[in-house]
Amino acid sequence: MSDSTCGATLSPGASCELKIRFSPQATGSPTAYLFVRVNESTTLFAARLDGTGYMPIEDAQINSAVLPYARAIPVGATATAFASVINSGNATATDCSIALPGGIPATFSYQTTNAANVLIGTPNTPVDIAPGATQGFVFGITPSQAMAATEIPIVFDCANTAPAESNPGLNTFILSASASAPPDLLAIGATPSGDGVVRLPSRDGTGFFATAAVNIGSIGSMTVGADDGGRGLPLSLRVCETNARGDWLVCGNQLTRSVGAGQTLYYTVLATGTGQPIAFDPANNRLFLRFRSNETTVGATNVAVTVP
After folding, report:
1. pLDDT tens string 5-39
2. Record's superkingdom (predicted)?
3. Which numeric CATH code is attached to 183-308?
4. pTM of this prediction?
5. Can you spell out the DSSP letters for 2-26?
């Protein structure tokens, strides 16, 4: 018995609840009995308990994440990013690898990393991932021709699993390539809760996330704007540039400015509800901050959002 609402006595017409836990140690269909004695009677009331024990199904299941979300590079250069593959199943995921989908004019390579993102293992070699474990990777994409900004669904797969589900912003990678070096902003977003989720306090309240972006590319002009990835979420979004202390400098629906090589920029995205709830669905309900130069995405980051 794992729990009970029954006390020492039970009034006429009243009821109570007993919870019985069944933890089989072997396969089969065992039977047991629960006996109840009423007052001082020698009569026992019996309730038959039946259960079936099965062998646990061993199954590996993988999920993945990519950071940063976007890069912009010259043709022939290599854009690198980090990836994590999580085995959420109860069996070892075997021969796990990363690949590009078809149709991308680029070469691809990957290698495992340790928890400190230091390269280990052998390049382009699949690895096993234990149940409940996370394996880090770094991958590189080298375009052979100019590419407009393309959201690439990186393929994460193991020999004994289905490929990891692809979700924009979580495990996709936006890449553009041009003849000359463009601005290339490495951006990362942070929420007050520290878990990558913006939680509005009410349906008409306001939440926010902050972003830092460093330009590892060339000098250029750009526009900065926020969106919900086309989901049509019941929110109004506003972008504010700040300094490193978080002081607001300028706000708007979309901001324009120049960015120098090596310069770090800071932004806060404000999300205000319009009276409707947003389900907690981090894979789909997300907010994006995008940096564009010459109408091409040259940096981006994103977080999840929910409204009670």
Report:
1. 777 777 787 777 777 777 777 777 888 777 777 77
2. Bacteria
3. 2.60.40.10
4. 0.83
5. -EE---S---TT----EE-----SS
